[in-house]
Every structure is written in structure tokens, then in C-alpha cells.
């Protein structure tokens, strides 16, 4: 209750401060940039805002920058009628944005330079905002930041930009800022996945971890093994191979990598619908049959097909929650274990390591859930990134062992845990107890996980937002600029939640637990 | 529980029947058309589907038909990659849709002819579907029906249309098929309102009842009284006058009328934020001051401004839940009552009737909530439509008195009642106990109400859908074609819910109460 009362006070203060010039006294950006300086001048933003790329080394052959600029203009307008007059206002008019990208290369991959500098001068004729970035993906982040500087003026019916001149220098604290979606427990239609990708860009998340398949359904077409998607829930709850290509390209054009996962040897029951020999037996269907070479042929086929679509440096091979009892209760497999001198845990390790080798043969680095590390960390390929989920304190052990780590401890960063609060999402620090800079560098970042048992197209967005945004600031903003007390960012996050709503994203109120309905009538800013 | 078990069985049967050719044995349309005949031929739908208007009397100067056609093509694709080959499939290719509209007039208003005939032949070269309609708005409904005949073929990566030839003759049972939204209890951003309008067209709802303002906030700019929107929740939770024009035009181009409401004399506290003299006193702020001519000047100003935006035949003047105690506890008003020989209920009647006259002077017919009828039905202007909400059995009384009626009985058709089930929405019959055809004609239709106390941009869509769709079929489909038992349409409604999800609408599962999360992993079709 004390915490709830503090939140209420913060939100009341936020709402009280709202007015046409409220922007002047504060920085309303989410996530907070590394460095911000501002002035006190109000600009009008031209209705016909120009994009200039003079001086850029980037040719934009795929239209990444041009399309991002158009999207930015659209979200700034928030679907308001922009039809006021520029005459007689006395404010300088911002004519355009000049974007200088130094690198001609627009291949998106892990660790790409996402830094940018955004300057909005208060004088000049014509007056242009300036974006400088090493890559187009840094420029995309700059455009998002720019969009958050703009406000609709309800009296003038124009877009205004307060507090110019602005100078913003920015770069992410972590390269890995992920969100997991799960299309096995419930199918997510393609437009829904795309809208999730769009919403990620608003808080600068950059990795969509696509947990494609699990025990319950296998929705993706795999050309090498065309019966695998017989494990889909229904005829229409599927993705063609070309749909996956389209999703990846859609994400890449927005600076979002797609990390594909197959979760083996557990969490793979649905594979056997099309190929029953992948099951230990007709009555014991999980984990995948470790004794059958066909199992690894299928994995090889999937990862070979993946390598044509998913160009991200990493592939996720799962490896969590493996109950090996089917291997010992199935006589054929039990014999195989004895013949190879393996017990169940040997076989689990054998499966994971053999699968790792296959993935590496297709050019991937590997991510595995933490049980693989907890059970045989010293045997994992050194290219392995260990994906924490069971609890806190794991990252320390992983980096001490010299492996890389991603943090998703379920008590704080599982979005399906509706009792995990946004404050908990905000305060969850991936580098807790890790002080050695070399070890710190092994923590690639973190990921919030939207597991799909109770999530479908109807409720995914308000279960993700605004809590994922709280984690996004933790992952983006320099640690010294992060709030020591989540309550002190509550009002700014509430405003960002309202902005998401204005952009059509069904972000839930801050108050209450995950995806709570508003408890009473009131301003978006106070809920 | 018995009902839940029946639903489960129906949904299991639905899921079991799903396959690429499942469409052949059933009519998967929502709402069910008046008349449907079909064959057994599968067509391929051209990737470059043409719109022909040869023979049409309608020039489409505003692009209503052209844009609707483009939207139809987009929703049919469901964002799948459509890139298969048409060669060697042996199926005829549907080259386009020919639309013949008889009336050149595209003014949308109450009672406009919405009927259409849709034929999809199985032979012809070039092969064209045929739409005939009196108005472009009938043609829009035909395009929606056509879109529901199309399926994505996951193997061929093309759009297919099963069961040709089709002949569908269709028209609505009721002219008034409404959905209420409430932007006073929570502000709804413009893109959210537009997405609600889009989703309405999928089940052929045709009236958006915009409950703009209430006690809690006054979000709309009123040029005649520019301080009224000082009663908004915050600077940004507002609509400019031009935003309202834009929303109305957006709706009209989709065949959706916008019914504007001011709810007087109660439910108007927020008006006084800008003009405190509208309050009886600073300590007793509702209902509006009946004794002050300024009150009626403001109402006149609002309705005058409304008449420039809201071209619908009707305006809604509220009139419900009026607690008149402030009128007798405020000495000034009490004196006025005595002076005019009125008691409280006289004054309530006086207020409503005077407001009706103002609305009529601006060319409107009037809708009032049922309390006005219940208290002084014989005094209401004969142009009044009585809007039922308190319970069932009201429509009978209204039409017996010779007035028109809209049905929204809260126990069945209030969407904010989360315990109101989709079965209840489906089975709620507006003509219950009304047998005289002349009296039946006085029932204009019905409306489902999405009151906003616990609804904002985060949860509106899944609280509306799929329950509003259940009512939409009740309001559209001839009574003899409606199911006698809601359970028998459960599987078809589940498929329509999945279709909404595929189109990006966050429609909730059928199972459970309003906007329940899915209870467990599973196919969309079974939930």
C-alpha cells in the first residue's frame, strides 16, 4: 500500500503539471538518453517536414531511412488534423531533418552501432534538425527520440517542439535488449507480430526472440521437413516460410533482429505430429528421441532452413525443463543408453552438445536456457550464450565461468507473471554483483518474456506494455542516469504509456498488476 | 456449467473440421446473410484483383468504393506473403469484382439502402464476381461478405475462394445497428476510435454512438463556447473540432454514421469547469442549472456546432439518471422553481423538452434515454426515439405509445457488464412481445454499449469483441435464419473471432466472461 500511495502521488503530480508548455521544465523521453541538453525556445514543425541526407555515406537502397522518416511523421501527428496556420505565431519553423549516416552498410546484426547524436537548433534558415549516426539503425533511434520531442498543439493545430535547442548524445548500455513472444501456446497472426515489432521500436528494444514452436503446436513451415507444421493447431494457425521471411525483413527495416528458437530436446512434442518417429513412443512423446539419428537430421534440416531466413548471429536452442523419463521407460532408448554407456543426464548433455554443433555448422552462435549451464556448463561450446530465467544470481556464475549471459529472471522479467510489477521490471539490474569490467562485458543484456499460455491476439499488447518499457530503459540508459527509486520515473513512464495509447498500442495502466483494467474513470496520466 | 460444456463441444467440433477444404461444407459468414446459395468449385483469386464499375451510376468522387476495395484486398491477404504460382492448378482464376451501384448519391444517413446482391460465378473469361447494390454502402457490405469467402491457401500461397458459384442476397433486418463508445470516463485517442470503426464494419454495424462528454471530462472543442474543453482530463486528452470532422468523415466512408451525444441535464458536471455558472453552485454541480438561460444558450451553441459536423439524422440528448436535488438545495434555483410553479420533476421535463426544441431547430431528430419516456412519455416530441437501457420490456411500451425505440437493455447488451455473455448478446431479441408489424417498424434496432469507467485504449477492443458481433448478427440477419440456440452458432462465431484476430482486432476468446484471457494453451478456434 505504501508503494501504491507513492505511485498515486507521483501520478497526481504528473497530471497536475500537464499543460501546453509543460514540456519546458522536464525531459519527456523514454528511455532516457545518455546525455541531454536543452534550451527554452519553441519551434513549429513544418507540416511538410523534409528529410535531407546531404553528406551521408548511406544510399538507403532498401528505403530503411526513408520509410522510418515517414513513419515518424505519422506518429508525431497522432492522427490529429494538422491544419493550423504558421503565420503570425512568431516561432521559428523547423523545415526538416538532416540525417548523416557514416556507414554505407545496413546489414543489421548483433552489436551493430546504435549510437546517435540529435541536435535541434533554435535558429537557422532553413532550420533543420541534425542527426548523425554511424549506422542507419542509430539514425532510426534518433528519429524515435525526435518524435518524442514533438507535441500536438491543440490550439494552433500544429506540431510544436519545445525547449530547443536540443543536443542529445545517445547510445545503448547493452547490445541485447529483447522481448520474447511465444507462437506455440497461442498462434499470433502476422499483423499482430508486426504490431509488436512496431511497438518495440518506441522504447528502443532491438531483439524479438521468436519462441516459434513448443510442446503444443508447430506453426512454421519447414521446407526440409514439410510435415512438421502438421503439428499446427489448425490449418490457418500457421506461418509459411515466406511469412517468416517477411516478418524478419519487416523487423530488420525497423532495427529489430529476430532470434529464432527451437526448444530441444524438451518442449518439442508437436514435432512428432508430422513425424511420429521423433517421439520416444506413441505413449511417451517428450523429449525428442535421443537415440535416433533421424532426430538430428530433422534438427539439421530446420537449422539449415533457418539459416536462409534468420540472419541474426544467434539461434536459440532451448534446452530447459527436460524430463528424461521417457528415455528410460522406452525399452529401445534405454537399450541405446546402456549400449552407449550413458545415464539420463549424459544423454541430455549429449543431445544439447550435438545440437550445438549442428547450429555452429550453419554459422550460428548459440543461446541455451540456463539449465544447460547449470548441469554441464563446462562442456558447453564457448560460443554459447547462457539465457538465465530461473532466478537471480545466475549471471554472476555464468560470467565467472567465462561464458556470455542474457538475463531474464522470471521473478522480475517474465511478463506472463501478472504479479511482476513495472517497478520490479525497472529495478532489475543485469549486472548485480558483477563488478569486473571484463565480466560485465559478458552480460550481453536482457530480455523480457511474453510466454503465451494465457496470451493471444486479444491481450498480448497490454500484457507487454508498459512493463517491457520499464525494462527497456534499464537496458538502454547509462546506469548512472537510471532512477534509484522506480517511483521517481512513474510520471514519465505514465506519460510514455499514454503516448503508446495515442499511437494505437494497447498499453495497460501502470496501477494494478500486469494488464489491469483501469480501476476508475480518470486521466490516462494518473493510471 | 451445462452451457459451458455445450460451448466446449461445439468448439471442439469446429476445430476438428478445420482443413483446407473445410469451407466446402459450411457457410462461414458473419453475420449470416438473408439468402445464400453455393456450389462446389474452388477459384483462385488473382493477386492483381481488379475493380470494375462498368454499368454503375455511381461516380465515386470521394473514393469511397475504390478505397473500400483496396482495404478489402488487404484484409483478404491477412498480411501473408501471396506469391504462389497460378499455373498448373487447374482452378479458374477470379480476375476481379464488378460493382454496379444504382444510385449516384453517396450521402450516408439513417435508413439508407444497405442491401446488396453478390454473385461469384464459377465460369467466365475473364471471371468476375458481381456486386449489385442500390447504394455504395450496400456495395461496401458486399465487399465485406466477399472478403469472408476468401481464404489463404497455405500450400499454394494464394488466395482461394471455395464453393463457387455463390449467390448471396442480403439486407439488414434493422436500420439501426449501433455501438456506443464513451470518451468521457476515459479518453480514447483518435487512432483507437478509428480502429473501432474499422472493426465495426467487419460485422456490419453501422452506427457509432459517440458518448462524447459526461460528468468526468469534456474532451471536445466547441468553437461557440471555447472554454468547455477546459473540462478535459488533460491538455492532450482532447479532440479538436477538426478531429471530430475527421472521425465523422472516416466513419462515413466506411458506411458508419456517427451519433453524437450530450447527456443533459445530468451527466454534465464537466461543462462547468470552463463555465462555472452552469453549475447550480460551487458545492452542488449537477444537474445543469435549469433556471439559467445561459445553460440553454450553451446547449444551443453546442448543437449549432454539432450540426456542422454530425450530419446524422439524430442527435442524442441523454436525459438519464437525473438527480435533481441540487435544484432544490440551491436557494436561487428553488426560488425560480417556485416562481415558475414547478416541482423537481416538472423542471426535469421542462429541461428535456426545451433541449429537444433546440435540437429540432438545428434540424435533428432526437434520441433520449428511457427515463424521459418513463417520466413524461406523452410530452416528448413525436420525433423522439426512446433509447432503452434499464431492462427488458420497455420497447413494447414505447411502440405502444407510438414512439420509436432503440434497444440496449443493460442486462444483455452492456459490454461493460463483464458477466453478460456472448450467448446473451446473441439471444436478446429487440422485438420480444411486439407482434404488430406497424409497431415492429417503430423499433429502429439496437445498440451495444461500451461504457468507459473501466475501459481505455488498453482494453476496449477485447471488451467489445466478439460479444458485439453476436448482437450484430441479431440485428442484421432475418429472424427466421437466426439460431434458436446460441450454441449452434458458437463454432461459426469462434471462427469469426479468429478472423478478427487475423485482421489485427484484439477480440477476446468466447469462453469465459467478457474479455477473459485464454484459460489455457490451444487453438483460437476452441477458445
From TrEMBL, chains A, B:
One GO location term (cellular component): membrane
Pfam name, any one: Glycohydro_20b2
Q: Does the keyword Signal apply?
A: yes
Q: Which UniProt keywords apply?
A: Glycoprotein, Glycosidase, Hydrolase, Signal
- Domain Glycoside hydrolase family 20 catalytic per the UniProt entry, residue ranges: 174-478
Q: Where is the Beta-hexosaminidase eukaryotic type N-terminal domain?
A: 29-149
Q: According to its UniProt record, which reaction does this protein catalyse?
A: Hydrolysis of terminal non-reducing N-acetyl-D-hexosamine residues in N-acetyl-beta-D-hexosaminides
Q: Name one GO molecular function term.
A: beta-N-acetylhexosaminidase activity
Known CDD domains for this protein? Answer: GH20_HexA_HexB-like
> Which branch of life, at top level?
Eukaryota
Q: Where is the active site?
A: 321 (proton donor)
Any single biological process term in GO: glycosaminoglycan metabolic process
Which first-to-last residue range defines the signal peptide?
A: 1-23
Q: InterPro entries under this entry?
A: Beta_hexosaminidase_sua/sub, GH, Glyco_hydro_20_cat, Hex-like_dom2, HEX_eukaryotic_N
**EC assignment:** 3.2.1.52
Q: Which top class of enzyme applies to this chain?
A: hydrolase
Family statement: Belongs to the glycosyl hydrolase 20 family.
PANTHER family (UniProt xref): BETA-HEXOSAMINIDASE (PTHR22600), BETA-HEXOSAMINIDASE A (PTHR22600:SF21)
Instruction: Name it.
Output: Beta-hexosaminidase
